[in-house]
Structures are given as C-alpha cells and as structure tokens.
C-alpha cells in the first residue's frame, strides 16, 4: 500500500498536466462516469495522506491505491486502467485503485493539519487526539489517518523502533515525552522515506520493518499481526519499552 511519501512523488510527477484539458477520460471505475471529466481543465493536484486528489473547477477526483494500486505516466499496462486521463501531450493511467468523486470544496472534506507531510501539519493537534484515545494501541494510533494522515505500516514500524516504544502500548500509558517523540518522528521519518524513495534506497535504511534481528540488541525481532488494524508489526522486546500505568521512562 503506498504511504504518504509515495503519493507526494506521484503528485510531483504529474505537475506537467496541471492546467491541461482532459481530452478523453475512460476506465473501468463504476464510482463515476469518466466522460464527466472530458474537456475539464485540471486546476491542481493535491495529496492528503494516502489520497491523491485530481482537482477540477467544481469537482475533485480522489484516488486511493489500496493494497495493490499503481499508476503509469505516458505508458500503459495490458490491463484496462481503473481510470485513464488523456491529454494533448501525454496520459495518466491509474490501476487497481478506489476512485471517488468529491463534489464539495475539498477544504470542507479534509483536515490538512492531520497530514504529516503538509505545511499545515499541527503536531499539537495530533498529541491532543492521542490523549483523547488512551485505550488505543500505539500501533493503531500511528496508522489512524485522522491523527497521522499518510503514515503507513513501514513508517509505523520504523517510528516505534526509533523512539524505543513497544507497539502494544496503550496510548494512555505512554509518557508525555514519548508521545511528543512519536508525533515528531512520524513527520521526520515520512520525509526521510520521501528522500530515500527518490534515491531508490528506501529498503536499505529499514531497521525494523521486515527485519529478523534487532540492530541494537542483536536478538530476534518479534513479528506479530497486531491491533485492530492487524498489520505486520516488527519489534524488539528488549529495547522497545512496554509501559504500565504511566510509568516514567
């Protein structure tokens, strides 16, 4: 599943189509009639977390790549795209994704302060939301898109390893300084992810995700499917602390 930084890369890659008219829209999506987009001019491309937003004058098309979605610019797969936008000098093809038409102004739909890669990101708001959910597990909190829009499973595993916090912690038991670290590192790692992804070196920098041995303690990582999200979680039972009853670090 693409995480927020991957959507930023897509947004940057399609900037040449901004201001261009869609000459032909087609695809297998049932959520909107692609012909609705014919002859409309793209006013902007935006992202919110894992959502890729194609903006027109009065409507927006939201793309979510789910688990297996992908895209191609100026080329096609053998498969029919879920949505294809063709321009005078190129095309954008989107595959195996969820397509949704948004007819409201997107500022009424999205809380930009929750996007960890947005200039409008508000870390204090994220901490407040965490405090409002003391029974949520740390592994679920980082994947909660209303708190950390754009954070996916890779970022979750790496952030918790960076800050020495066990993924099974209840948010209410995590010390305040660690909640602040979690919030800060969710942003830091997302921008590291973006840089490494552009360099094609992302996997070389993984310390916890998919790894078998803790590089700090040199013992086997635990691998579990944890929390309500039931996502793969890799952690060290020694250096990632499990707090009880608001213990101090």
From TrEMBL:
Keywords, alphabetical: DNA damage, DNA repair, DNA-binding, Endonuclease, Glycosidase, Hydrolase, Lyase, Multifunctional enzyme, Nuclease
One Gene Ontology MF term: damaged DNA binding
UniProt xrefs under SMART domains: Fapy_DNA_glyco, H2TH
Gene3D superfamilies: 1.10.8.50, MutM-like, N-terminal
Domain Formamidopyrimidine-DNA glycosylase catalytic as annotated: residue spans: 2-94
Keyword Hydrolase: yes
Pfam families for this protein: Fapy_DNA_glyco, H2TH
Keyword rRNA-binding among record annotations: no
Catalytic activity: Hydrolysis of DNA containing ring-opened 7-methylguanine residues, releasing 2,6-diamino-4-hydroxy-5-(N-methyl)formamidopyrimidine
Alphabetized InterPro entries for the sequence: FPG_cat, FPG_N, H2TH_FPG, Ribosomal_uS13-like_H2TH
PROSITE patterns per UniProt: FPG_CAT (PS51068)
Biological process annotations from GO: base-excision repair
Transmembrane stretches, start-end: none
PANTHER family, alphabetized: FORMAMIDOPYRIMIDINE-DNA GLYCOSYLASE
Family designation: Belongs to the FPG family.
The protein's name in its UniProt record: Endonuclease
The organism's taxonomic lineage, starting at the top: Bacteria, Pseudomonadati, Bacteroidota, Sphingobacteriia, Sphingobacteriales
């Amino acid at each position: 599943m693409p995480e927020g930084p991957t959507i930023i890369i897509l947004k940057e890659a399609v900037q040449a189509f901004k201001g261009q008219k869609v000459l032909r829209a087609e695809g297998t999506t049932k959520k909107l009639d692609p012909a609705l987009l014919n002859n409309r001019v793209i006013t902007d491309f935006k992202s919110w977390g894992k959502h890729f937003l194609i903006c027109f004058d009065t409507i927006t098309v939201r793309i979510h790549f789910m688990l297996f979605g992908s895209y191609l610019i100026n080329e096609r797969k053998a498969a029919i795209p879920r949505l294809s936008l063709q321009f005078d000098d190129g095309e954008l093809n989107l595959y195996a994704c969820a397509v949704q038409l948004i007819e409201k102004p997107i500022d009424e739909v999205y809380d930009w302060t929750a996007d960890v890669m947005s200039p409008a990101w508000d870390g204090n708001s994220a901490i407040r939301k965490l405090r409002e959910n003391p029974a949520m597990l740390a592994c679920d909190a980082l994947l909660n898109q209303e708190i950390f829009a754009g954070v996916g499973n890779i970022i979750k595993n790496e952030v918790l390893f960076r800050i020495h916090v066990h993924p099974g912690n209840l948010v209410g038991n995590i010390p305040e300084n660690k909640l602040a670290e979690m919030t800060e590192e969710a942003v830091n790692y997302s921008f590291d992810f973006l840089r490494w992804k552009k360099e094609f070196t992302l996997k070389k920098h993984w310390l916890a995700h998919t790894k078998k041995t803790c590089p700090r303690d040199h013992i086997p990582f635990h691998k579990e499917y944890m929390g309500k999200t039931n996502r793969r979680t890799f952690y060290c039972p020694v250096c990632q602390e499990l707090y009880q009853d608001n213990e101090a670090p």
